[in-house]
Structure formats: C-alpha cells, structure tokens
Amino acid sequence: HLNLSMNNISFIEYGSFDSLIYLSILDLSFNKLVGLFEIGPYVRLNMIILESNEISELELLKIMMNYFYSKNNILKQIPAFSKLYIKEIELDNNRIYYIQSNTFEDLRNLVSLTLSNNQIESIESNSFIDLRSLTNLDLSINYLTYLNETLFARTFNLKYLNLSSNKLEYLSKTELAQLRNLISLDISDNYLKIIEDFAFEQL
User: Stretch 13-31: mean pLDDT, rounded?
Assistant: First the structure.
C-alpha cells in the first residue's frame, strides 16, 4: 500500500512505480493531478484512488486493477475501461453530463458503479448492456428526465438501483422489466407524474 495522498503532486513520470511489482493499493487522493499517467507495464494494482484531484479527462485506462475511485474531480466524460477486470468504479461528484452507448462494454466483472452527483442528462440505450455481474448502480442526484427502454438490458443481477433526486416524470412498464432480482429501488425526489400500469410487475 503506497499512500501519497494530501500532497501537491501534479505529474508523475512514466515508470515511476516499475520496481513496485507487488504494489496493491495506490492512493493519490487530494493532490493536483490533472490526468492519469501511465503507471508502467509491470504494476498490477488492486485499487487506485484518485479522489479530490483536478482531473478533467482520462483516456483509455490500460492499468490492471479491481477498484477505481475518482470522485470529487472535474471529469466531463467517463473514461474508457474496455477489457479491464474491474469490479468497482466510483465517479461521483464530477461533471459528467452524458453516457454513451457501450461505455462499459466488456466489463463483465463489474459489481458496483457509482455515478451520483454529476450532471447526467442523457444515457444512451445499451449503456449498461450485458453487465451481468452488476449488483449496485447509483445514478442519484443527476438531471435525468427519462429512462431508455433498453437501458437495463441483460443486467439480470442488479439488486440495488438508486435514481433519486433526478427529474424523472414518467415511468413505463418496460424500463424496469428485466430487473427481476432487484431488492431496492429508490426513485424519491423526482418529478414523477405518471406511473404506467404494471411498471413494477417484474420486481
């Protein structure tokens, strides 16, 4: 465990951690990083913590890790996590406004995804498709006005879904139809006016 938090780090050179081949947790929280560096080919982290930096953009992440925490930054887009064996992602308290289709493609091991307190107005269809290990999804405190009918396609194991404090006005019977293992659903503090018949039939 290497803790470099609460410093003034703004840049880290490539290969700085190459000798730490058994490094498991890297904590860089509360620094002044504006982006994520290439750690190097020899380090396989279990967890990287980038909380409370000044990160506005992250390109394709090639770091092998299980847990990625980057809350309290100024990210506007979700970085590409393609083909990483990641289990948990926390991106709350950023400035993300849009989620593209297949953003989380191939993340078959992802269990928990937190995107609360962003500025998300729109989520494309199939954004969460085939996230079959996903059990917890937090989209609270955003600006969502509707849910795409195929948004949760084949997310069969989702158990906890938080949609509170958005601007949802309408809930149809198709949006939640595939969430048959859902244990907890929070849609409080929205603008709901109409809930269609059988909207909760499969829950």
Answer: 87
What confidence score (pLDDT) does residue 176 get?
Answer: 81
Residues 6+ apart with CB under 8 A from 118: 91, 92, 93, 94, 95, 96, 97, 141, 142
Alpha-carbon dihedral sign for residues 123, 140, 104, 158: negative
Mean pLDDT score across all residues of the chain: 88
Distance CA 90, CA 29 (A): 13
Place of tokens 């019977």: 173
pLDDT at 37: 66
Model-level pTM?
0.91
Share of the chain above pLDDT 70, in %: 90
Nearest CA-CA partner of 42 in 66, 22, 60: 22
**85-92, long-range: CB within 8 Å, 24+ apart, which pairs?**
85/109, 86/110, 87/111, 87/112, 87/133, 88/112, 88/113, 89/113, 89/114, 90/114, 91/115, 91/118, 92/116, 92/117, 92/118, 92/138
